[in-house]
């Protein structure tokens, strides 16, 4: 599965590298605005019922069909609302050019909603390899379409087509491989049970969406659409690097923790392992971005994107600190406690908005530093949250992250030293040597300082290579 994720993410990075030479920052800014608005409807479309299906002890035909019809009806309704309100939303953000983009992307809401149950089933069955293969297929085809559209002069629509084509293909493949079809059954009792859990999941999702809205709105209002484009490219680089590393190992942590929920000791061990291994994998790539951004960004995207370089440094640091959010949020969902996470997410939303409002008058770099500040507060808060949930000390909760710090600090210093030593030499040579040194030093120190993390990392590989086995489907009919 990890190799498949690498193919998809590496292809995405290559595509962005090409598109940034064909499109301008305003194009990326427009799509970022549209995507921020549309994500609200993605969160609302399945009402959290897909997450219920993933973590429930048992699901049957009635559960699945009820969840499907609710998701479909809500998806159609929300898509229509976004289509109708697109002109007003675009005007509210002083970006009328976003209107047709929003209307086009409204159709994606229906696709997402219609595929939520097949996706939940595949995750529940732990068919990770199959899901990864489907994502790779959709992503690669979408990337080819985007490049062709950009070369054909379609401008911002190349980015829109990339999103739409990728989602339609991936969702279609999910339907085929899930081997499930909805019936006309609808159970009011099942809906009542699922919606009580689902609304807590939706609440968490809405906080994330509103936080994204606030961040985007503050940047657009305080800096402008062009600066949002620069910021978006830096975020894409960091997100791609994150996906290339630790995200591939733990894409469905909710499932993993749900399976360990029968024993507190197993749950503690699973969380510690997930945190330490994911941090050990994601950290060196983020360090590489941080120490080499001044060369890496213009090399990948062109000299006109140099303003993104200064933003990428604090964003990479923030991503390292915040990477455990995926694990900790999955832990709370997996043990059936999404409501507890909601209050925490709201408080971090407040911290993020406050820091950004303070930072935005001082420019893009200050805003990026606000992201880093938020990540620090969030990380410490998560330690207390998880310690309470797992009934253990804060120190024990923080230890998997803190154990990686020596390797991170020394490998970062080594990277800075190599960049200084090779200053003025060939860019490719400098970037290559810096990357090898950062990775090599980090890996060596992880093996020496935290050998149990090294062993855990190696032990995961064969398990994930064999994770594609799919048991018999739950509920519903089979495709012919």
Structural write-up:
By secondary structure, the protein is mostly helical. It folds into two domains: 1-222, no CATH class; 224-467, no CATH class. It has 20 helices and no strands. 50% of the residues are buried. Mean pLDDT is 83; it is low at 248-252 and 462-480.
Topology (elements, then pairings):
Blueprint: H1 2-19, H2 25-45, H3 49-55, H4 61-92, H5 99-114, H6 116-124, H7 128-151, H8 157-178, H9 188-222, H10 225-244, H11 253-259, H12 264-301, H13 307-322, H14 324-334, H15 338-359, H16 364-390, H17 394-402, H18 405-421, H19 427-449, H20 451-465
Helix pairs in contact: 1-7, 1-10, 2-4, 2-5, 2-9, 2-10, 3-6, 3-9, 4-5, 4-9, 5-8, 6-8, 7-8, 9-10, 9-15, 10-12, 10-13, 11-14, 12-13, 12-14, 12-17, 12-18, 12-19, 12-20, 13-16, 14-15, 14-16, 15-16, 16-17, 18-19, 19-20
The proportion of residues in beta strands is under 5%
Biggest β-sheet strands, sense, barrel: none
Query: For this entry, what is the oligomeric state of its chains?
Result: single chain
**Average of the residue pLDDT scores:** 83
Q: List the secondary-structure elements in sequence, H or E.
A: HHHHHHHHHHHHHHHHHHHH
Overall structural class, as computed from helix and strand content, comes to mainly alpha
Looking at the structure, what is the overall shape? globular
Could you list the spans in which at least 5 consecutive residues all have pLDDT below 50?
A: 248-252, 462-480
Q: What's the Cα radius of gyration?
A: 22 Å
- What is the count of β-strands? 0
CA-CA gap between termini: 27 Å
- How many separate helices? 20
